[in-house]
Write a structure and sequence with these properties.
The protein is α+β, with helices and mostly antiparallel strands and about 200 residues long. The chain is built from 6 helices and 5 strands, in the order ααβαββαββαα. It has a domain at about 60-185: 2-Layer Sandwich (Alpha-Beta Plaits), CATH 3.30.70. The chain has a 3-stranded antiparallel β-sheet. Bound molecules: iron/sulfur cluster (SF4) (2 copies).
Length: about 200
Amino acid sequence: MALTNRSKQVAVRELTFMERLYLPAIIKGMMITLSHIFKRTPTVKYPDQIREMAPVYRGQHVLKRDEAGAERCTACGLCAVACPAEAITMESAERKKGEENLYREEKYARIYEINMLRCIFCGLCEEACPKEAIFLTDRIVPSSFTRGEEIFGKDLLVEAMNERIDVSKRQRPEVLEFKKDKRHLHNLTYQDARPKTTAHH
Ligand code: SF4
Ligand code: SF4
């Protein structure tokens, strides 16, 4: 039984004289090729020429540090749960006394890995993160010769202190405004004096 009415009966028939000549079909094809010579070429001569990306292009991830340089990720695992490709794995550890300048929260990711071969760059990890720790950036993931090289660890994901990555274009103005409000614990760094009674999330 047909599921739709879009099926078409195909008859096997003899080719007409014109069709058997093949020449008209070849000329028609050549005309299409010729017409493309005068059109603007869409080819980009990468890497000499870099294509302009959309402001929210989703490329290689970054694990952000806060303004004081501490890693924002608290290894809650929400990004891994949200990831439809199961590309993220991590192992958490407890922050020790004196490590407040390294890790923002009491728990941090000792290991954090993204398998770039699995990732489909959907951005759901970025949306799931409650700590503004993971963002996709406009960086292109470099190709490699082995699969192992495509598993990116913290060495490649955490932003370098001297090469911070600006993600403010990916954040809504309301969010950027909220972050200025130091009454919220979420916006405090280890350098800020933490109010004991009034602080809330
Ligand atoms: S961008 Fe999507 S597929 Fe890639 S790690 Fe994040 S959630 Fe997973
Ligand atoms: S990146 Fe965000 S969502 Fe993922 S484990 Fe770290 S804090 Fe949680």
